[in-house]
Amino acid sequence: MSEGTNQRRMRLQQKICLQIILWLWFDNILQDVSGGTRSKTTSSVDVNLMFEFLLGGVVIDQDSNVLLLDKEMASMRQGREFLSQINDDIPKSLSSMSLMVSTLEARQKTRLTQSEFDNLVLSMVYSAHQAQKSRDKREAWGGMLLQLANITVYELRGSFLFSS
């Protein structure tokens, strides 16, 4: 199989993985809102806004800061809070992401807070973006995305997608 075919297949797997995780995340939030099972600081409106921010498009500048392409959304108070969360609380290097993964895997018995869970999902979004953007590190960022997805599925459903 050619390298181009492998890269296309990996990109497709990453997109499918991210779509599944986002679906599970939104499904989990909706179940939590209706059932009141998870104490959280994020309302369903905040989740919907976060999704709108991501759909509006993002770009990562040379300092690894995430910027919203929709200037109107970026100027909203919630947009500024979202940018603050993603720029201040999300690891931006493979080594710091790997450390976060190790930390999260070590505490499997303890449920994540809503803020930690949001940061986990945003880390997946950042990793997916980096895997699409960085040709020379695509495989490494793609692998990181799969590890984060595995932890997210464990957090949502109590079992891993695959064993490490």
What can you see in these coordinates?
By secondary structure, the chain is mainly alpha-helical. The protein has one domain (about 5-155). The protein is about 70% helix and about 5% strand. The chain has helices spanning about 5-35, 45-55, 70-75, 75-90, 95-105, 115-135, 140-155; strands at about 60, 65-70. A two-stranded antiparallel sheet has the order 1-2. β1 and β2 (about 65-70) form a beta hairpin. α1 (about 5-35) packs antiparallel against α6, α1 (about 5-35) packs parallel to α7 and α6 (about 115-135) runs antiparallel to α7. The longest helix is centred in the first third of the chain and has 33 residues, at about 5-35. The protein starts with a helix and ends in a 7-residue tail after the last helix. The model is unreliable at about 30-45 (pLDDT under 50).
Note the run of SSEs as H and E: HHEEHHHHH
Spatial strand sequence of the major β-sheet:
1-2
What structural category arises from helix and sheet content? mainly alpha
Count of separate structural domains: 1
| Spatial shape | globular
Q: Indicate the proportion of strand residues.
A: under 5%
The biggest beta sheet reads: 2 strands, antiparallel
Radius of gyration: 16 Å
Number of strands: 2
Mean pLDDT reading: 78
> CA-to-CA gap between the ends?
25 Å
Number of helices: 7
Helix content: over 70%
Poorly predicted runs: 32-45
